[in-house]
Amino acid sequence: MSQFGTEFCDQFAIVRFEDGEWQAPALQALEPLQLHPAAHVLHYASTCFEGFKAYRWSDGKARIYRLEDHIARMQKSAASLRLPVPDADMLADMVIGLVRAHVADIPAPPSSLYLRPTLIGTLANIGAAASPSTEATLFVLASPVGDYFAGGARPLKLLIEDQRSRSTEQLGSTKTGGNYAAALGPTLDAKAQYGVDQVLFCPNGDVQETGAANFLLFNDEEVITKPLDSTFLHGMTRASVLSLAADLGYRINEREFTVDELLAWSTDYEAALSGTAACLTPVGAFIYGGKEIPVRDGAAGPNVEKLRSALQAIQYGDAPDTHGWLTEV
Ligand SMILES: Cc1ncc(COP(=O)(O)O)c(C=O)c1O
């Protein structure tokens, strides 16, 4: 299968917000958007998006993972950018209609259909830096994606960045393009300089997240991760892993922790990144102060493996959906 995010179904769902209301959504051929060059999004970054997956089970039907929760997160992102907030039922119908039309395009698990609702401010006004876009377009792309771990789950290496932030305090939990733009330079620099996979952003020592995934620690009894606040994205995979870990008897320890604490724990605790694309990926080493610090023995640990398998079993239809996370299409 082609590289993640480069292959698309030949249709997308689209709706415009004009004259103060959402118009009728359409499922149509995937084609370039017509945008005025003065569109608000092109100048003032009024954009947010979501990312989640649908799986095709052996019964031939698709299941969308945590649809309502992702829509709620998108509504929160839109509101924080003062964009028109998509109606939840309208957006759910757009996603479901798109998935229904393309069930046959969904490769079998562990592959899936990645869904990307995107909202952009389209008001043609380059004088609107300090006012909201009162016109917008919402569309949903569907992209068949392969197994992230084809070839094996190699533990990742992370640079610990203890000064710079991935985002700003007010937009950290908003899924908006500017945050990815902010993380790109530091991440590329770290890859070039240290050969790492990602940067773990820990401004002033506060361990937050990487450019596109949350960060968690595990031992046989406990899961440690930062409690929800406005500085980082509230990942659905993080939330799911915490729920499953609680079901399995782990203690859930949502607490702030520092780089010094993280490094002290890394001799005993497993570390992992969580996100829709890669589920739960083990972290094998950190780079900090120019030194490489292994996480335990550097290999993938059993607790990360156990929780990843538990989540994927639900997604792939191999275990009951006890939390009601799946929408059947
Ligand atoms: C910055 C950031 N953090 C965390 C995540 C993980 O979120 P989720 O588990 O909802 O995919 C993502 C997206 O995948 C992200 O872009």
Shape: globular
Bound molecules: pyridoxal-5'-phosphate
Mean pLDDT: 97
Structural class: alpha+beta
Q: What string, H for helix and E for strand, traces the elements in order? A: EEEHEEEHHEEEHEEEHEHEEEHE
List the domain count as a whole number: 2
How much β-strand is present in the residues? Answer: 25-35%
The strand count comes to: 17
CATH topology of the largest domain: D-amino Acid Aminotransferase, Chain A, domain 2
Number of helices: 7
CATH architecture of the largest domain: Alpha-Beta Barrel
CATH superfamily of the largest domain: D-amino Acid Aminotransferase, subunit A, domain 2
| Whole-angstrom Rg | 20 Å
What distance separates the N and C termini?
Answer: 24 Å
- CATH class term of the largest domain: Alpha Beta
| Percentage of residues in helical conformation | 25-40%
Low-confidence segments, given as residue ranges, are none
How would a textbook summarize the main sheet? 9 strands, antiparallel
